[in-house]
Amino acid sequence: MEKSAVVIGGGLGGLFTGAILSKENIKVTVIEKNTTVGGGLQSFTRFGEVFDTGMHVIGGMQKGGNIRRICDYLGIMDRVHLSDVDPNEIDTLYFAEDKTTYRIAQGRENFVNALAGYFPEYKEELTRYVEVLYELVNQINLFYLRPENRGYLITYTEDFMISANNLIDKYISDRKLASVLAYMNPLYGGSKDVTPAYIHALISVLYINGPSRFAGGSHLFANTLRDFIIENGGEVIVGDGVERVYSKEKYITEVHTRKGKVYKADYYICAIHPCTFLQLLDDPTLLPKSYRDRLNEIPNTYSAFTVNLKMKPNTFRYINHTSYYMSRYEDVWGFDRKDAEWPLGFLYMTPPELEQGEYTNKIIITAPMVWDSVRQWEDTSVGRRGSEYEQWKNDCADKLLDRMEEIYPGFRNCIEAINTASPLTIRDYYGVKEGAMCGYRKDCNNMTLSRVPVVTKAKNLFMTGQNCGGHGFCGVPLTAISTSEAILGQNYVLNKINGITE
Ligand SMILES: Cc1cc2nc3c(=O)[nH]c(=O)nc-3n(C[C@H](O)[C@H](O)[C@H](O)COP(=O)(O)OP(=O)(O)OC[C@H]3O[C@@H](n4cnc5c(N)ncnc54)[C@H](O)[C@@H]3O)c2cc1C
Fold first, then answer.
1. d(CA 335, CA 340)
2. What is the distance between the alpha carbons of residues 276 and 241, in angstroms, rounded to a whole number?
3. How close is the Cα of 172 to the center of ligand 1, in Å?
């Protein structure tokens, strides 16, 4: 091990990048401020139950899936505990406006057929729309783990660059069906006229191909990556965040932690929100002012309010998929509207246990929420936000439970205990600006503004995580490959993956 890397942040991005680099003989030290690794993969125990915080449904883990192939390359697949969702009903979507439930099916044909069951006269449009989704995703070599040899001459079709809502409107003429097809936009922090079509296509294709869920808690996967790094000669420090980053002549020289430890390496990888990272720089001129200004100005995706419920034994049946609630069809792109009545909609799920029975012990309800809703408490810290905030959280939980009661009369009687988390919780636990669910908001009107390269003007500093490429369980590991290859050489990791798996 001749070279070394310090990774700042032990979330999905830091752990995947650390795992790849350590497999390729780089001595990795991951530094995580929280007492457990994982970031969005973190789970916590409350009322004797394990609750996941930011990774409820994942794509790319089906046989032949891109993230599964990365796990095969790392050799960790036999340690991963997954539960596939019901292929006949990968999601259900309820619109309160007309009390209609739509059931979404897995696989291209089944997806089209299931929706054509509700909208028979639009089957042709649906078929073409799904074809277009796959065509868009096919333009992204990294998604299919294909080596990239196009240099700077990558061109995309016109559909790739339009907004997600425009893409749907272009191919689907029925208003209700167009809203139904946009149902999973909270999974990518979707914004009307802003989120690029390719992001919608990526997430849609991932889920049409088949979503999975972690069984027993997403933290088990974080621990697997942590153990892999340690087994490969690396170190994973927890409970000690990086407080200062020192540099000289365009090179980072060392990082200091809150507990006063000093770490030095050949390479430094920023796996935290870039705005949080900028505040750690001892000498901000390590990075050009224009770049720093840009990082501070890129808008973030909206955040979320979560209700974690412990259910009384044998009262609520386990549901083997994610469920969505929407009030009105016309609001499906409205989650980032500051003036909107809250909640416009939400997701709820019964996360699978390692040995799942007929009934669930817990339910997680997640509703998109804008940062403005908590702005008045933004200067407070965990446990010290005051009684007004606690009352506000109870009111928010009540609104969500009212809607659950609407779908499941008697729902409140099944609840044993309630825990809530707001955008402030997400900001303070993950260190993410404005508690953004998916980091920076990607913008089809200004693609270069919202895409942060993995390389920087500082010679030994690299970026990774959801703010560079895509977010979530698929986007972040793919960016980890790009970050690793910025150090190891172009296509180095991709060639290895292709040599090992098909
Ligand atoms: C409520 C919610 C639900 C979500 N649901 C899903 C889902 O179902 N499926 C999906 O694919 N995606 C989901 N996401 C998105 C997903 O969680 C993120 O895209 C992903 O976790 C981002 O990974 P990351 O490594 O970039 O950042 P993070 O996971 O945020 O990791 C950053 C890490 O850096 C640490 N850190 C911060 N500052 C410092 C410091 N100074 N020193 C050391 N460490 C530091 C943090 O503690 C954190 O562990 C959800 C997000 C939220 C908020």
1. 8
2. 12
3. 34
Under DSSP, is residue 191 helix (H, G, I), strand (E, B) or coil?
coil
Q: Quick one: tokens of 321?
A: 């998929």
All domains of the chain in start order, with CATH: 4-82+215-298+438-500 (3.50.50.60), 105-210 (no CATH), 302-431 (no CATH)
Q: Is 236 exposed, middle or buried (0-12, 13-18, 19+ CB in 10 A)?
A: buried
Largest CA distance in the chain: 66
With the most atoms of ligand 1 within 8 angstroms of its CB, the residue from 430, 442, 474, 483 to mutate is 430
Tokens found for residue 147: 């080596």
Q: Identify whether 284 is preceded by a cis peptide bond (ω within 30 of 0).
A: no
How far apart CA 84 and CA 330 sit, in angstroms, is 31
Q: How far is CA 493 from CA 21, 251, 468, in A?
A: 10, 25, 18
Q: Which residues pair with 39 in a beta bridge?
A: none
The residue type at 283? D
Pick from 243, 302, 437 the residue to mutate for probing ligand 1's pocket: most ligand atoms within 8 Å of its CB. 437
The response to whether residue 484 sits with its C-beta less than 6 Å from ligand 1 reads no
Looking at ligand 1, which atom is closest to the CA of residue 280? 41
Verify whether ligand 1 is closer than 6 Å to residue 13 (CB atom): yes
Which letter does DSSP use for residue 119 in this model?
-
For 361-375, write each residue's pLDDT tens digit.
Answer: 999 999 999 999 999
pLDDT digit string, tens, across residues 381-402? 988 999 999 999 999 999 999 9
Q: Is residue 502 over pLDDT 50?
A: no
438 lines ligand 1 (CB under 6 A): yes
What is the rounded average pLDDT for all residues in the chain? 96
**Quick one: how far is CA 312 from the chain centroid?**
30
State residue 233's pLDDT score: 97
Instruction: From 336, 469, 365, select the one nearest 56 (Cα to Cα).
Output: 365
Structure-block tokens of residue 434: 């404005």
Place of tokens 């998604």: 143
User: What is the Cα–Cα distance from 488 to 282, expressed in whole angstroms?
Assistant: 28
Question: Does residue 60's CB lie within 6 angstroms of at least one atom of ligand 1?
Answer: no
Q: What is the pLDDT of residues 202-236, one digit of tens each?
A: 999 999 999 999 999 999 999 999 999 999 999 99
